[in-house]
Every structure is written in C-alpha cells, then in structure tokens.
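FORM 7B: Structural annotation worksheet

SECTION A. Query
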Amino acid sequence: MNTEELSALMEQRSLGYRFLARAYRTAPDAAFIDSMLETAETLAEGPLSPFFEEAAGADREQLRIDLCADYNQLFLGMSPHPVAPYESVYTSEEGLMMQDARDAMVRVYETWGLRVPASFDLPEDHVALELELMACLAERTAAAAAAGEDTTALVDAQRTYLNDHLAWVSQLCDDVEQRARTAFYYGIAGLARDYVAADREALSEL
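SECTION B. Predicted structure
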C-alpha cells in the first residue's frame, strides 16, 4: 500500500469512527438525523437498512423524539435494564464503573496529548470517547502518510489500542441489540460490531 492509499484508508476509518462516536455520545438531534438521511446511500445496504426504510416516509420530528426516547432508555437509565456504555463495566470483575479501564484510558489520552471535552462530564472509558480516540489516531496517521513520514508506530499503536480498549465493544453491541426499541439503535449496534471487527482485520494486514 502506497502513502496515498494509506492516507485515504486512514481518513475513511476516521470518518467511520467519528460517525459511531456521535451515535453513542448523545441522543440524535435534528441536524444529525438530517445528515444521515441525506447520505443514506452510503449506509443503506448494511445493518441500518431497516432504519432507513422506516425513516423514508416518517415525520422527522417524531423520528427524533422516538430516537431520543430509545437513547435515554438504553444509556441514561430510563428503563429497568439500561446498558452501561463504559469499558470498566465490561472488563472489571465487579462490573462497575470507574475501574482500571477508566484509569488506563486517562493514561492513553495523556500519551497522545488529548483531553476529554469539558462539556462531556462522563467517565473517560465511555464508548463514544474510545471510538473518537481511534478517529484521532487515524487522522494523525493520514496526515503523517500524506507528509511522507514513517507511520509504523502510529499503525502499531492503533492495533494495540483496538485490542486493548475496543474488544469489549462487541459485548456492548450484543446488549444494545437485546434492549433497543428502534431500528436505528439496533442497526447502530450491528454496524459498530461489524466495523470494529473489519477494522481489526484491515489493520492486521497493514
């Protein structure tokens, strides 16, 4: 793979991870829904296809309300069995928040000179932040490749990060699929699981 191809791959990966990060960060607003529906052709053949079929003739404000309600019951505790989108919950023996995974993520951010936005007042091992970090690393790799720099260390770092901090995402996605009430979040779970698995394979071949 030449530098142009590597840069393009990394830019594409960054976009994918940023989309997933946005989907898990907060409930969809009108702008996010409009953006998805306007670019539906890029996702319409995958796990989100049932959502796009339903959304085609739906009232967008009602759609937003329904998706917000589903996000709230899934991730904000507004249901008897919510999903905790934190690595610590899935990797600690106690199944609790703010465990070793959270501390490890703090160190990862420091290593790369990154900070969690002040407006995001949730633990550092939230799935949205972990996905966003991979997007940042992919962007840095794309820039390094475009500049003709050696990207070996950056690619290796992404392989390590994916294995150390994103392996749990498949379990999260299983739980989201079991509890989702909308085709959107059911599809997002399938898309995230497939994307991370495909990315692991892609990185292993570089």
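SECTION C. Observations
The domain at 3-204 is CATH 1.10.3480.10 (TorD-like). The chain has one domain: 3-204.

SECTION D. Sign-off
Analyst initials: ____
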